[in-house]
């Protein structure tokens, strides 16, 4: 369990990187943290590791107050945290096995025990045949697997990942995310993943927080956040391709489907509209499966203002999130940029 | 002319003094190399760790140390050698011979090598340092297992350059009684116009430098897994 209480961080020089952050992450949760570049994501994770002191507030991990810990206590606390880095940061002078053994060496685990653990961990990340390879002999995905095994070596309760897949292609990203998901299921660890890829959040996060200029702008279980139309995060998570073929200013109706109401599928939506004699000209749409549920967003173009109003009415009456928007507004509303390889 | 022809490579100087000169040059280089590493390596580590990107930045101390090192590097070797003769006498008991030359050579090489070490350590990515600190490692552990180990290929490269520079300095030391191939070249090749001695000395110095460079490159390559 991770608990942040009114955490602020001001860097020497006056940059306020975190501003009264409150966050509660229950044990066993995979929590995504997203936000623009410079929002303070890395700062948040560095404060969690104790690599950076917080200016104000408290951070506790599994009941241990990290902000009060000093010296030996801090070192012990760090051992209860595993960290995975974007650039992996393996030592080039050590083989995969030696890199994984490193935290155990530091914790003075006896050699025989060390060897047994390393073999176990290599097995866990599927790299048993690569034990004696140096990092330079491994692919990006394999390196990250070694990085994850190393982070888990000292059996931490918490795994912190700062952009763990940003340097990987999409297939490898999926494999790494799958691995992280499996590890959580098997070991019951709590995971924080910082990412700028919405696909990462959609794929494995149970909950997500949006960090904006050092503050948590929105935080909650993934489906709740998506269902919340007012949150820009919802539009980022289920994003629509641009409708650039349309005249700027053209009216569009945006509908969000979350399988929660009576209308759970696009099929139901289309039949509802046709029952009411309304044309459904779809300009853009996307469907994602999130935590086993289908979630989607559509842009429907009404013929004129009166059908627009009627469509809106019908959809709202059916309990759906629908709103009127214009084609030009779309381009400016993109807050976070989704980058998918 | 005929005489000169006959003495070509038959020169008693070559027969009687060449081997000793070669050995003196090698001893001087090795002894200086040893002491340079002994003092220069810790100094380089200290410079790095106290520096702005080190484990324990302490800028006043760093600047003071930096100043001393830069001063040591700025003094021309030949001046340094003459300047510290009293110190050399104090340590070796004499100011002549290869043993005596080791003192100024070492004093000159330490700051040079220390900067090389500092540079090599700076090239070790900070991410690696943080990753290992995250494991709860002490600064000593990080210095030894991350900075020095990851920077080792660079340090060996720096040591090679230092040794090569030292070999040319041993020749300079020879000019003022330091022994070795340099002294032989100056005493016979230059002062007595024995071109054969000069040529042999030059060739041998080139051979030694090449061997050092080759060995250094080989070791650095073997240690480098990047
Ligand atoms: N060591 C530092 N000293 C001073 N300011 C810093 C330092 N590190 C980060 N900052 C500032 O704090 C703010 C937050 O930075 P941070 O690295 O946490 O952002 P981020 O959300 O991780 O961004 P990115 O997505 O680009 O990695 C930025 O304005 C940055 O300039
Ligand atoms: Mg960052």
Automatic annotation (TrEMBL), chain A:
The signal peptide stretch is none
Could you list this entry's UniProt keywords, alphabetically sorted.
Amino-acid transport, ATP-binding, Cell membrane, Membrane, Nucleotide-binding, Translocase, Transport
Q: Which CDD domains match?
A: ABC_MetN_methionine_transporter
Q: Which GO terms describe its cellular component?
A: plasma membrane
Q: Enumerate the Pfam families for this protein.
A: ABC_tran
The entry's family comment says: Belongs to the ABC transporter superfamily.
UniProt xrefs under PANTHER family: AMINO ACID IMPORT ATP-BINDING PROTEIN (PTHR43166), METHIONINE IMPORT ATP-BINDING PROTEIN METN (PTHR43166:SF30)
According to the record's subunit comment, the protein's assembly and interactions are: Homodimer. Forms a membrane-associated complex with FtsX.
Question: What protein name does the entry list?
Answer: Methionine ABC transporter ATP-binding protein
What is the originating organism of this protein?
Nesterenkonia cremea
Automatic annotation (TrEMBL), chain B:
Residue ranges spanning the membrane: these are 26-50, 62-85, 91-114, 155-177, 197-220
Keyword list, A-Z: Cell membrane, Membrane, Transmembrane, Transmembrane helix, Transport
Q: Where is the ABC transmembrane type-1 domain?
A: 22-216
Top-level taxon: Bacteria
Recorded topology in the membrane: Multi-pass membrane protein
Q: Where in the cell is it found?
A: Cell membrane
GO cellular component terms? plasma membrane
Q: Do you know which CDD domains this protein is assigned to? A: TM_PBP2
Its BP terms in the Gene Ontology are: D-methionine transmembrane transport
Gene3D superfamilies per the UniProt record, alphabetical: MetI-like (1.10.3720.10)
Family membership: Belongs to the binding-protein-dependent transport system permease family. CysTW subfamily.
**The protein, known as:** Metal ABC transporter permease
